[in-house]
Design a protein that fits this description.
homodimer, 355 residues, alpha/beta, Isopropylmalate Dehydrogenase, 10-stranded mixed beta sheet, globular, binds 3-isopropylmalic acid, D-malate dehydrogenase (decarboxylating) (chains A, B), EC 1.1.1.83 (chains A, B)
Chain lengths: 355, 355
């Protein structure tokens, strides 16, 4: 049997609940199909650890994680800890240190999900958003001078490297090429941001030459939001910077019905380091511990993890089970249903076992 | 009679057409009401000038403009000139040099405009977006090193000053206070951007103390897009950074029905320098010269200009005439009508004369 070692970081808030659901579904699919074995290494990295012991993670955690085949991540964020601390202690270092330079977020209106945009129906908004995930506006450089004075200045330095832009662009053209419409939209804001974002556009031009069968166009991020609302079917694969990808992928989730099903993979396509799979939603302390969280985003992330690990059959089954539970209205409140987290989880497991 | 000297910069593309419409409406309202006199100083600043003479503007243009009471701007952008050149030669220097630190963009679903978001109706999405307009991600600093090599690095430096953040925050709290719901949402991305955006949040906290009657909350820009789609009525006044304001205001225009009516004022609230009024849409070369552009955004911008100049009665009339033409379906194609730019203009003038 093929064996895969998964580092599991439930993290904070509802991250813990949806991770439990996900592991239940993963165990079910493994039992059903056989042929592979997942070992789960559950880690206590997170805000509770920070509050108790002063750090999110033990020393050497990145080297430790490096030995796993993939990382499943729940969520991070705690009302008692400023977000910029929790995120830079836990999720952002993994994306950057493991060179997970691709963040990939598919969006579509699934049957069973009420449409949010007038005139759209299930099957529409079939988008894949590819977000640069290691540099740009999240490079982490910047600082504050004359703190607290009237003349204080704070800066944020966005850093774009040709290498960094080229690799994400190539991945995006390849993704577009692999999809039926072979359509790519490159998003930037190069009219206002003349250095990093202009490099972005230039590299797109250059890389596009290697993919003559891909139809592509450029959009400014502001106009892009209008196009997503007004002409959703004109879009297919989308590639954009770290910050713009953050914004546009949330918008895509909002337009396609729910952030509760939006999932995300942070990939190192070179497979030098482990890739990371997580739901797009956060820790959501307001609904924590109430068995209200929608586990589907987390479970769908895990399906992508299975696919990444080469377990396509298992991935397909998990995805199918999730879709069927939604189509049958077996959903949590955010999707209009009345089930609890635990009930949705059992439904998905049940459906999976029948498939 | 009160007299106001308006610098008129039609600029490029449909900017020229919608400016012509606007001046016709302004002349009509002046004739109708009396008591004030507008003098229009039409300037040829723009891409045609650049292509013919090598520069967008004559020497000393900013000092020259400084003598006007307000600036009306059409649009800039030309297929033959890279956008980052045209914008940094014409529109961005005005915003920055004249310390027009407030960019204000109201959005609402007007009666007569088909709704884009399921469950919204005219009157919903009654938002005022206040965008910082002189610094932040548009500070203009940055550069490129090792250009063209594999190890090229390009940077964009976002600069936030306490002074700059405080003044926009205070304006936003005052705007919120002046509106019935007294509700303000402060948008940033301080979880990922720990310096400039954290300063933003801190200043919001501090300034909020001066406005105890304003209810306010903080949102991350990504989650904000979801809230705009899913809970539009929970929002009223919104304040955000230069780049986020650019993105969110386009999204607001998209959600409320059309970029063709979205208008924008770049204000220096200290009235040291002239303020600038412009439609949100760009030069749109694809429809240029076809009499297809929607002139309403430009005309509504001019209404705001009249208000800024103290001509509230005239401003109200122009706005009312625009709204009525929309409600009666006397619109261009983007709003579902079948009229030309020139016909919409005559309709607005006719309605105005009857009011
Ligand atoms: C938690 C936060 C740092 C993160 C981001 O901005 O990347 C989140 O919003 C996301 O999209 O994964
Ligand atoms: C033309 C461009 C520089 C401008 C901006 O990004 O500010 C435009 O999109 C706007 O919103 O006024």
């Amino acid at each position: 049997v093929r064996s895969h070692k998964i580092a599991v970081i439930p993290g904070d808030g509802i991250g813990i609940e949806v991770t439990a659901s996900t592991l239940a579904v993963l165990r079910a699919v493994q039992d059903k199909i056989g042929g592979f074995e997942l070992s789960f290494d559950e880690l206590d990295y997170g805000s509770a650890r920070y509050k108790a012991q002063g750090s999110y993670t033990p020393e050497g955690w990145l080297d430790y994680l490096r030995k796993s085949d993939a990382i499943f991540f729940g969520a991070v964020g705690d009302p008692d800890v400023p977000d910029h601390i929790s995120l830079w202690e836990l999720i952002l270092p993994m994306r950057q240190k493991f060179q997970q330079y691709i963040n990939i977020r598919p969006s579509s209106i699934l049957p069973g999900i009420p449409s949010r945009v007038v005139g759209t129906k299930p099957g529409d908004l079939d988008w894949v958003i590819i977000r640069e995930n290691t540099e740009g506006e999240y490079a982490g450089q910047g600082g504050r001078t004359h703190v607290g004075t009237e003349w204080e200045v704070a800066t944020e330095l966005a850093v774009f490297t040709r290498k960094g832009v080229e690799r994400v662009m190539r991945f995006a053209f390849e993704t577009a090429q692999s999809r039926p419409r072979k359509l790519l939209t490159v998003v930037s804001k190069s009219n206002a941001q003349r250095y990093g974002l202009l490099l972005w556009d230039e590299v797109a031009e250059q890389v596009s030459k290697e993919y003559p069968d891909v139809k592509w166009d450029k959009m400014l991020v502001d106009a892009m939001t209008v196009r997503m609302v007004a002409k959703p079917t004109s879009l297919d694969t989308i590639v954009t910077t770290n910050l713009h990808g953050d914004i546009l992928s949330d918008l895509a989730a909002g337009l396609s019905g729910s952030i509760g099903i939006a999932h995300s993979a942070s990939l190192d396509p070179t497979r030098t380091s482990p890739s990371l799979f997580e739901p797009v939603h956060g820790a959501a302390f307001d609904i924590m511990g109430k068995d209200l969280a929608n586990p589907i985003a987390a479970i769908m992330s895990a399906a992508e993890m299975l696919r990444w690990l080469g377990e396509a059959e298992a991935a397909d089954l998990v995805e199918k089970a999730c879709r069927q539970s939604i189509a049958e209205g077996k959903t949590t409140g955010d999707l209009g249903g009345s089930l609890k987290t635990s009930q949705v989880t059992s439904e998905v497991v049940d459906i999976l076992e029948q498939l």
